[in-house]
Amino acid sequence: MKTYLLAGVAAAALTAGTAHGADLPFAPGDGDFNWDSFTAFADANDFSGEEITVTGPWTGVDAELVNSVMAYFSEATGATVNYSGSDSFEQDIMISAQAGSAPNVAVFPQPGLASDMAGRGFLLPLGEKTAAWVRENYAAGQSWVDLGTYANADGTDELFGFFYKVDVKSLVWYIPEAFDEAGYDIPETMEELKTLTDQIVEDGGTPWCIGLGSGAATGWPATDWVEDMMLRTQEPAVYDQWVANELPFNDPAVVAAIEEFGYFALNDDYVDGGSQAVANTDFRESPTGLFDIPPKCYMHRQASFIPTFFPEGTEVGEDVDFFYFPAYAEKDLGKPVLGAGTLFAITNDSPAARGLMEFIKTPIAHEVWMAQSGFLTPHTGVNTDMYANETLKALGDVLLGATTFRFDASDLMPGEIGAGAFWTGMVDYTTGADASEVATGIQERWDSIQ
Q: Which element (helix H / strand E) includes 167?
């Protein structure tokens, strides 16, 4: 998955844990958690003596965190939850499903594999009641229903995936002090962002730092730009058609989105080092210009993980901050958000497995992880004051303000396209190739693998 590849996550081969009997990080009743949701769930569910197996991609600290959430399910119901995490989850879950030994619940790092397994009859549908709950209780609820709905073995669409723990990509990073000194306001629309870009140039500055370098994965940051621009220039349904190759890569809508990226990246006045530096600048080093005095650039569009590569000691929310990568006011497409996330699905049915799926609907199942580290949710019923810090709360607000959420397109496309031709095509574009020619080349590659 792109996020793991880029952030350099080195996961342990296997992390396992048992939630039953584990210490609860927050005593029920303490603090401002939604303990009513915990109590109501406990009163309605008793799975004493039952055991649930859960497999997912989380290892190390993340495995400890998910086990801390599962401990509350065990406390409420008496069930034992055995979670195992693996950095080869995608291979492991398919092997166990084919062998008839799948866990009760699988946590998928992206929808593609879940969709494949649903089509082969390896997932159990969650039902219309759950779909209705998601529509009602998640910001941009229909988007999450769409992302978790796949064709079953008979070709009929059903809800199979429940999203839990989400990442945000539609962000622009900036230095508040630099903005204040220059008198710049946070842009609320894409029109205002383009106006600000020009204003910075007029004032003698450089608006953007952009870098596509990432070793064998060079080019991927540009795919995120294009995906964000697709959501800001086209209806969500058009984005979905593009991801599914129902809309050709060289359709004018896609070419226009590529050129929207080019509007920023191919203007020498707009980019630190000029446009010729974009393809050769490592994405990890590209935001460093924000921190120079005077700034080498004022803005950097990148996902929520990028602070990992900021100078040591940088305080997010003080030294550096972010704003939502805005949408066009004139296009009236709401506030689309690009991101990624994990989804729970039932792979071996049982009453307790169904109970666990009901538990992760409760606010407490989100707030426990929110209050510890690195968890974002579109659940509108949570107390956002429970986020571990103001940065996470602000990121959560971006999710809650979304009218549309879409998963990273390149992660959903076939590997040869999303992690191949799309990446290299964006490098070709930034080094002088025509957008329509690049898009046609990607489409021809896609046609060749079908």
A: strand 162-168
